[in-house]
Design brief:
By secondary structure, the chain is of the alpha/beta class. The protein has six helices and twelve strands.
Length: 185
């Protein structure tokens, strides 16, 4: 397994997040000794979903306004339909994601998570996968869409859905381990 001990990983999510697409990456990252921070524009708690049914309320570590993207080494964008749809219309969330895109920091996105990457101009020229309904959106934004359980392209790893989580988490940790750690301030 890649060494990501003490890497600072941001997970950006809001209400409507597919619960398992947030909780499983958190579990995998913590097991690899990464420092994980769940961030949301709302702060407090967010509503998790199990497909189209409400699941648990999930704790948020920081609200988006209180953190700087520069503090983090990598970013995870979980899916769920509502979660990335709300994030991609939030200018602060898009700016947060755009920092990772422009700085070349690794990003892991699953399911509908790439919607926010489209808004941050982070898909052009990348081979990617996603929930099938995003195929046209990603292609129109300049990505090459592939129907695979996981696609790694440069500093980006993507997967289609919760069934792909074991492969997604493995490749996410591997990718995050190849990126240089943020220098201590």
């Amino acid at each position: 397994m890649a060494d990501i001990a003490n890497r600072k990983i941001a997970i950006l999510a809001t209400n409507g997040v597919e619960q398992v697409e947030l909780t499983e990456p958190v579990k995998a990252l913590k097991a690899a000794s990464a420092q994980v921070t769940v961030i949301s524009p709302n702060g407090g708690q967010i509503q998790g979903m199990n497909h189209d049914e409400k699941a648990e309320m999930l704790a948020v570590d920081h609200d988006l306004a209180s953190v700087s993207a520069e503090r983090f080494d990598a970013l995870v964008l979980p899916g769920g339909v509502a979660n990335p749809d709300v994030l991609r219309t939030n200018p602060d969330a898009v700016a947060f994601v755009k920092h990772f895109v422009q700085s070349g920091k690794p990003i892991a996105a699953i399911c509908h998570g790439p919607w926010t990457l489209i808004e941050a101009d982070g898909v052009r020229g990348h081979h990617m996968t996603s929930w099938p309904s995003l195929r046209t959106d990603l292609t129109n934004a300049g990505a090459v869409w592939e129907d695979k359980s996981v696609v790694v392209d440069g500093n980006l790893v993507t997967s289609r859905n919760p069934d792909d989580l074991p492969e997604f988490c493995r490749e996410m940790i591997k990718l995050f381990g190849t990126a240089p750690a943020r220098k201590a301030a």
